[in-house]
Amino acid sequence: MRKPKFNLDANTLAFATISELGDLLRKREISCVELTRFFGERLETLGPEYNALALSLRKDAHKAAKDVDWEIKHDRFRGPLQGIPFAVKDLLSVADYPTTWGAKPFADQVFDYDATAVHKLKNAKGILLGKLAMIELAGGGGYTSASASLQGPARNPWNKAYWAGGSSSGSGAAVAAGLVPYALGSETSGSIMTPASYCGVTGLRPTYGLVSRYGVMSLSWTLDKIGVLARSAEDCGLVLHEIAGADDNDPASANKSFYYTPQYYSDFKELKIGYAEIDFSEWPEQALRPAFAQALTVVKTLGPAMVESKLPDFLYGPIISCIIDSEAASVFETLIRSGRVDQLADQGQIEGLKASMNYLALDYLKAMRIRTQIQAAFRMLFAGIDFLVAPTKLEFPDKVDVPFDETPPQRPETKGVVAGLVQAGNLCGLPALTMPCGFVNGLPIGLQIVGRPFSENHILALGVEFQKRTDFHKQHPGTAIT
Amino acid sequence: MPFQLSRRRWFWLMGSTPLLAQTPAPVVPAGQPSQKAKDEVRQVSEKLAAIEVPMNVEPAFRFVA
After folding, report:
1. Using CA atoms, how far apart are residues A123 and A355, in angstroms rounded to an integer?
2. pTM metric for this prediction
3. Does residue A191 have an active-site annotation?
4. Is A89 tagged catalytic?
5. Cα(A86)–Cα(A118) distance, rounded to whole angstroms?
6. Which of A21, A92, A374, B39 is deepest in the core (most CB within 10 A)?
7. Residue A23 sits in a domain of what CATH number?
């Protein structure tokens, strides 16, 4: 690998935030071509080590970078994402390049248009460096091991024996390893929150409908969302600012814009934060509890009123399973009926997708009616609090070389907030942020904040404040190339 | 006894013949799912069936004319 010409430490550059990289570009301490070459080489060299890279787009990136250098030379500054490299999960289409959805039956699929989110980032003069690995079909049907991907099991940059999480696996691994400053991912039920938490990066799941899904693989129309994995809450806000907005091409578009203005949400003493002590002290795996307790202490130091809370009592798991599986059965009906589904890597997914054809209309409608009740119950819950805070994941990631352990872990009978929060948050389309909040045995753990629909600025402001008081998001694994 | 066809039955048969002709042959998935996968779906269905929802609760999606 060539030694970079600029006079900057490679580690500093690889793990810099969007704002830091933007400053370097505007001060002309580094050119956009140099920055693109630096991250492009990292992505191509280290990406395969983590099974994180689906497709490198370095040639196009180089051309785009030259354009940005010309603009900067002529003092044409377009915004914070100008000249910043990024990559996207391989379920977003990029015109004229393969979009595989991480699945063998779609390995040769090419669209002739960019997904709206990709188009918006290119318009903001972001530099698209590549497409990132993912769990095949975003996990539709239910996968049984980390190997359920065209690229093989995504390895965690903190310890390659462990999984990076899914289904936005490559997005989590690539950001954590400093291969790109930020990446787009998607979430139907946990697919941003899980890899962000396992990989120790900051992940934002926006409100349903805030970011267009045009040009994105459908798994479940009423649940799919596009979001961001990045180095900090602030970076997530900067990216959301660009990708959010109305889109006539997405029937679920909320027709809302998003302007990142965290400065208007700074009085944390006015906040009421819902949480459950038991989520931090008893629900996580034993080894993780002290770190989660410490994270909760940091939240308390911000001065909000802490309100002991409990999630409304619903069968979140079966309800979201029925909705995802029923919609996925319809989305992938041709794949399933044709038998091409058998080409998938994960046998559990093959069986699950076939079995999902057995759901009745009655089941789906019942689940969607209960979903109405869940939304009503959450409106009541959020009438008394501003946010819910809980651990993002309660356990260490699985190892990459063994099937997932399906044995239900021993958990307390009493439920607080964390049990079912990811499913409930997705069922209600609520925004959520996960941030690294500690390390145990060399692996990161995450804390999630969930808020009312379209409360992203408020959530991000809380995240920014948490990250001012901690430095977990500034830690990085030893992957630097020198 | 001679076979008698009522007018109603006659019209039903006449009316339904083209429909029957248009009905596609049932398509069977290339491979059947495993019993375990089927059981998981059945268990979810049973759990949902056990929940009572008031009739005025509509599904969480909107039809817009």
Report:
1. 42
2. 0.92
3. yes
4. yes
5. 10
6. A92
7. 3.90.1300.10
